[in-house]
Amino acid sequence: RSSAASDVYKRQANSSQTNEESDDEEMTLAWGDGTLASATTSDTAKVSPKKKVFISYSWDDDEHKTWVHKLAEDLSATFEVKIDVKQPLGTELNQFMESLINDTDKILIIATPEYKRRADGRIKGVGYETTLITNDLISDQNRIKFIPIIRKGSKEESYPYYLGNRKGLDMRDDSKYKEALKELVDNLEKY
């Protein structure tokens, strides 16, 4: 091995002092360019992975898809966002949807009248996702994993039956997009 081996953690043993308050071990990180940084083992343990967020939406029209993709990009700065268009060609989308319903922390449902029509009628991808979401909701109806976002229409026109009276976020007014995005990010981080 070359000097690149200095990139590994170098533990500093301090036999003259003991830390009775903590089992943290101080270490020096030596990078390949010669810079040093210090940290404790608890500092490295505090780094947590980004929350996983899946966006469920219908392909209403190009303008709607563009808005959803912008939302996904904006959320990607803080969260690991999963959305169908970011999957490589040839991806089996049913399997993709199945894994995401089970393996994500939050699912954003972009509610529009077309989404409701497809969800309630079990039509296309939204219909399949509805079956998966409904099964998940049956196991824990009080879960706040599913977050409705009203993009078009009223709540009555846009919420699929399974959403019932869940509290959602109104994102119909593009002039208030930044404020609504901040509220969404804060909520996703907090809960």
Element layout with pairings:
Layout: E1 9-11, E2 26-30, E3 36-40, H1 41-45, E4 52-56, H2 62-75, E5 80-82, H3 93-103, E6 106-111, H4 113-120, H5 124-139, E7 146-150, H6 155-158, E8 169-170, H7 177-190
Parallel strand pairs: 4-5, 4-6, 6-7, 7-8
Antiparallel strand pairs: 1-2, 2-3
Helix pairs in contact: 3-5, 4-5
How large is the count of helical segments?
A: 7
Share of helical residues: 25-40%
Give the mean pLDDT.
80
**What is the N-to-C succession of helices and strands?**
EEEHEHEHEHHEHEH
Q: Could you give the order of strands across the largest sheet?
A: 5-4-6-7-8
Distance between the termini: 46 Å
User: Judging from the principal axes of the Cα atoms, what is the shape?
Assistant: globular
Alpha-beta classification: alpha/beta
Beta-strand percentage range: 15-25%
Major β-sheet profile: 5 strands, parallel
What does this structure look like?
With 191 residues, this protein is an alpha/beta fold. The protein contains 7 helices and 8 strands, in the order βββαβαβαβααβαβα. The chain has helices at residues 41-45, 62-75, 93-103, 113-120, 124-139, 155-158, 177-190, and strands spanning 9-11, 26-30, 36-40, 52-56, 80-82, 106-111, 146-150, 169-170. The strands form 2 sheets. The protein has a 5-stranded parallel β-sheet with strand order 5-4-6-7-8, with helices on both faces. Mean pLDDT is 80; it is low at 1-24 and 26-45.
